[in-house]
User: Fold these one by one.
Assistant:
Number 1:
Amino acid sequence: MLKFDRVSKVYRVGSFGGDELTAVRDADFEVRPGEVVSLIGESGSGKSTLGKMALRIASVSRGAITCDGTDISTLRGNRRLKEYYRRVQGVFQDPFSSYNPIFKADRVFAVIRSEYHRGVSDAEWREKVRSALDVVRLDPAQVLGKYPHQLSGGQLQRLLIARALLLDIDYLVADEVISMLDASTRIDVLNLLADLKARGMGILFITHDLALGNYISDQTVILHKGSIVERGGTEKVFGDPLHPYTRKLLASVPQFHKKWEEVEAELRARELADTGSRDYHLSTAQEVPGDLVEASEDHFVQPFVPGVRA
Ligand SMILES: Nc1ncnc2c1ncn2[C@@H]1O[C@H](COP(=O)(O)OP(=O)(O)OP(=O)(O)O)[C@@H](O)[C@H]1O
């Protein structure tokens, strides 16, 4: 299990690094094998920072990320890090940035071979690559031996996923992998992620797109200004959103048959109807939101003051 245990990230900012910016505050959730967890939030909410910390691209300031019980910040030395990256890999929004334009795209496979599969014969390796490409539905004739600029964003994205498959990873951090793709390729990559999940891979699916999150995930985590405001089973979070911010996010998905004023009025009416009736509502006297409370089974929300805009 990939577990985020009250994880915070504080960046040093300002001209001399004298200021601090808390990008993530006390994030607490987990990704289990064979489960897709969507991390949803607006730009700047801290989503990528959480993904980067899981991949050790950014350090954890407070709390811990553990992989099957091992605090990943304690992994030192090439061998232990290599072991970790054999289990946990990331694929990012802009697939082009993961390739060196002067090398052929399938060099990413050669690197994996020299790092992790040295003893494998040429024939065996060709077969491994072919079967990984098969899983990501790429035709070897169309992609092998090509330079990155000769391939589409969707093909490059799928090559990176094939690379992850060659490592036989357990967890994938997929950071806005769909955003740059056209509509038909999006569906292909989403279906591919669903296949990987069915094979037992745990996926942290980072997105600002609620519809994508709803489509693919078992668990949903809603992030707002670095804090988790709501999380739980996807059907609970989408079917019965509790936090005003989640409701606002869901309402902001275009509802073409309604005017925005109508949507806003409905939101307010719903919140007023709830006022005082739930144990995660705070009075204005307790305005500082604390830890998430369990509203129902597998559904957690950050306490909030009803009627106060998120
Ligand atoms: N290396 C860094 N140094 C300082 N501040 C950073 C750094 N990386 C991110 N931040 C800040 O941390 C906050 C969270 O950024 P992050 O990239 O995690 O958000 P995000 O939700 O992934 O946004 P987006 O969807 O736009 O990628 C932002 O305010 C961002 O400006």
Number 2:
Amino acid sequence: MTTPDTAAVDDAASTPALTVSGLTVRFAGLTALDDVSFTVAPGSVHAVIGPNGAGKSTCFNVLSGVYRATAGTVHFGDSELTGLPPHRIAALGVARTFQNLALPPHATVADSLLLGRHRLTRAGFLSAGLRLPSAAREERRHRERVGEIAEFVGLAADLGRPAGALPYGKQKLVELGRALCMEPRLLLLDEPVAGMTADERQQTAAVIAGVRDGLGISIVLVEHDMGVVMRLADAVTVLDFGRRIADGTPAQVQSDPAVVRAYLGTGAQA
Ligand SMILES: Nc1ncnc2c1ncn2[C@@H]1O[C@H](COP(=O)(O)OP(=O)(O)OP(=O)(O)O)[C@@H](O)[C@H]1O
């Protein structure tokens, strides 16, 4: 996005806080999230970390409308997200990526990114099918924007290639680019650097920092790579067995005895 469009910048300037209050999710006797609260400040990277099974994915799935909360609320500014279906949450400017890649295997990178523009497409299938000039103009505008976003995430040279033929790290960048194509105000990134090489991790971390710093988009990050979390995050919420055990800056949570205990207990590194 060398020249981000005005609408996107205006949206970013008006990004509200995400407020999670008393979030509880129970699955048939198992409490996956237990009274969890945190606030994502506008334009910040907020990491949600914790050992395996801590409740991170469950939290993400509630934020994006895939799971329903048993109790508690999620607000994005004045809008309550709790209980809304995923498409209504997306329409409020909340985009997410998935841990496992969900790209159509044969589509080009350009077409995969265009999928992210679907919500913003005004011309219906009929006018597009009839090849009306208004539909052609709109498609050109969307393709231009796709080009800018591809440039921003470092995929400009790959636009014409099948997304499925790219190295894994680049495929994950396509997934990130597709979410950016929705012009979100809040981006939910589920393990964005998992399975990447060191170079790919570094490149992706730089793109994520650029999304925050250049576009003012808030980011909620679930990630096991502590190096990336500690370098990127402005704030960190730590979960363990569904409970929030710490919340603060990376330096604060890193030296918190409860966090060290939780990670040592699983043999992972904090
Ligand atoms: N749909 C579901 N039905 C029943 N139990 C579930 C469901 N989803 C998650 N759980 C359980 O909830 C708990 C929290 O799981 P969750 O996937 O949110 O943890 P996580 O922190 O994302 O773990 P990981 O780091 O391994 O991805 C686990 O005990 C898990 O088995």
Number 3:
Amino acid sequence: MSKDKYFIIDFDSTFTQVEALDELGAISLQNHPERERILEQVKQITDSAMAGSSSFAEGLAKRLELLQAHQSHLPLLINRLKERVSESIRRNRDFLQEYADQILIVSSGFKEFITPIVTEYGIKEENIYANTFHVDAQGNLTGFDKENLLSLDKGKIKLLEQLALPGDVYVLGDGYTDYEIKEAGMANKFYAFTENVVRDSVVAKAEHIAPSLDEFLYQNKLPMAISYPKNRISVLLLENVHPQAVELFRREGYQVETVSGALSEEELCERIKNVSILGIRSKTHVTRKVLEHANRLMCVGAFCIGTNQIDLDACLEAGITVLNAPYSNTRSVVELALGEIIILSRNVLDKSSKMHQGKWDKSASGSFEVRDKKLGIVGYGNIGAQLSVLAEAMGMEVYYYDVVEKLQLGNARKCNTLHELLEKADYVTLHVDGRPENKHMFGAEEFATMKEGAIFLNLSRGHVVDLQALVASLKSGKISGAGIDVFPEEPATNSDPFESELRDLPNVILTPHIGGSTSEAQVNIANFVPNRIMDYINSGNTYGSVNFPNLQLPELKNAHRLIHIHANVPGVLANINQVLAKNHVNILGQYLKTNERVGYVITDIDKAYDKQVVNDMKQVPHTIKFRILY
Ligand SMILES: NC(=O)C1=CN([C@@H]2O[C@H](COP(=O)(O)OP(=O)(O)OC[C@H]3O[C@@H](n4cnc5c(N)ncnc54)[C@H](O)[C@@H]3O)[C@@H](O)[C@H]2O)C=CC1
Ligand SMILES: O=C(O)CCC(=O)C(=O)O
């Protein structure tokens, strides 16, 4: 990099997250009876000046008058500001030090607090341009040096004119006075810095937006502390994912868009372009066709348990990892199932609807306790097993059937066949997963095998039950009641109608796929899934991924991490290591895990290496995706 580029960085709300004079006011007015009112007034003057709506010079004088500050307040202010240095400035200290000769802090703030902060980051004292306080004999900060160009309106422009820097000038700042430098022709580029504050009037004029210093460095091909600016990671969240997830992704610096309902395949093909992270629930189908339109997709987050709506193989082949929330709504489903078992045993639905029609039908006929009854659980996974424990606590006798061997909890009894379970159970509840082979696993034959008048629940997936057979069994009385939460065709949004042959049948509870829809579950999911996704993006961890080889990696420290995803064919690891050897790369650690289709190789390397290795890694035959992390 030649030395003819100069980087002008603003201080307030750019170098630090806050406006220093607001902070100074919070200290100096600590015991003032009208503290809040005065601070609000100071803030308004700052905002108005920064947005370019009022005279800067007048505002500065007015603010100092209001603040009633004393020089004894400055050490406390400096300590506070040190803690509030912007995150991206903090992490890019190496850049600030390496380019110290070309970095100027130009601020309408005051050197007395700016200098101790920015010099800690390698900024040269002679490159700090700011105002200075006037202090009276008692130590009060009564005003400022009016000769200083930066105390004047358009002061930054005047300063830049005087400096006449011999090269290209790039300005990074959040305020209108920073933009004005470019407008006056004193800078080649202005970047509106939006990490801490977004001033609409500034953003509207800026040709470049920098949500972080990383973005500024990335655009200008300057050395960065992290491998990729987080603001370039775009997240699309569908199906009303809980706002906590939006908040977590935004806090990480990602760009987030949300859609309240599910999207059709066509709509998703349109929207998926440039999306790095897709978040869905149970209704959006992530098909091979969708993936063909996904040019930047790294990860699909299923904000639920089931992942049958996602083409997991196609994701794998495209190097896209799929993560879900395997336990976050388990309890909610179990509680709904238990509630339905009781409601159906007492014929509550019919009695309640009669009451609403003004009919009093007090009778015990057709009503039973669940105690000592036999509950048959089909699919003894997380939900089935949890249900087993709670049902036993209510005095039920639990039987279960699963296609794989499962730990028997409490006194639950294993059935060797589904047939055996169906013959025994007074209640049959399905908690199998939605794999394609389970389509219509429960049909006429299974209903016929059930006990006369038994109760049936499905809170798993709609397609596992043959609906015609269920309707026939309900109409014939073979099944005396049912609780159905999931359907082969479910409306995409709450505005779409629900059509089903199950409507209007007596003693049938129909719920709109709400087994997992409790506040607790949604908050749990909204915390769990984004954290897993960010862990994958930031460290490569695939632990818990439903399609990728699971690797739990050590924290990345003093190294760069090469993440290579490839088709699992012989010789790829050897080729990778050849590339590393050819480029004399010092390997600090290597981790490999494969499944039948892909290999996942992580190589931690010394930070000093020839960048050619990156291109060479991408050229290794059978590479699906490659990225570098630091
Ligand atoms: N209604 C709702 O809102 C919700 C529905 N679900 C559904 O519940 C399903 C189960 O959830 P978890 O228990 O957490 O999953 P899990 O994977 O822990 O358990 C599923 C169990 O079903 C067994 N299984 C699969 N096919 C079978 C078959 N044909 N016969 C017998 N056993 C079979 C599996 O071996 C496994 O043990 C999810 O896959 C999802 O589709 C999950 C959460 C909420
Ligand atoms: O709440 C949802 O959207 C889906 C719940 C579900 O079916 C699941 O977690 O698998």
Number 4:
Amino acid sequence: MPPKELNFITSNCNKLAEVQMILSGIVPLKSQNLDLPEIQGTIKEISLDKCKRAAALIQGPVLVEDTCLCFNAFKELPGPYIKWFLQTLGHEGLNNLLVAYEDKSAQAVCTFAYCEGPEHDPIIFEGRITGKIVPARGPADFGWDAVFEFDGETFAEMDKQKKNKLSHRAIALGKLKKWLAGSDLARSE
Ligand SMILES: O=P(O)(O)OP(=O)(O)OP(=O)(O)OC[C@H]1O[C@@H](n2cnc3c(O)ncnc32)[C@H](O)[C@@H]1O
Ligand SMILES: [Mg+2]
């Protein structure tokens, strides 16, 4: 039997709110608040491992997501370690890291992984958007949104609906939606 809903495992309520908005009317979404251990590795390896851990814990189908912020001048670091960089250095510190470089461009990368259960291989959906790192503007309530500028606006200044149409997360979920449209999961709604 195909699952009738997606179970998004995340400890981040801001991510959850965006995923709820983007998937609204597409597929029923439930969520469990778990902060899963994250390995070191490539973006793909981290998401695959996170998904397998979640499926083993929940003993059922799960959707997980990992977000990276990759500075091009830093050859894509901090990447998956952005959470710890942000927590330690703050918005100003992220800007200071790039002071010595002319290239302030950065890629926001969102990688969803879905699997049907502990015995199944996860499927990956990635979304990527290029912007630049700027001094903070707008509300500081979601991660690095205030220092990531895309098309003249930081994500924090941007209307939520607009962010959720064009963001790294929207691009990744666009791929997930296409996959759902061709799968039993989408038909089971
Ligand atoms: O439980 P999980 O889903 O892992 O939630 P998390 O908050 O630990 O998230 P990550 O491990 O993916 O770390 C990504 C970091 O980037 C931040 N972040 C994620 N998506 C973002 C977005 O769209 N805009 C700004 N910051 C974001 C988030 O707050 C973290 O500090
Ligand atoms: Mg995390």
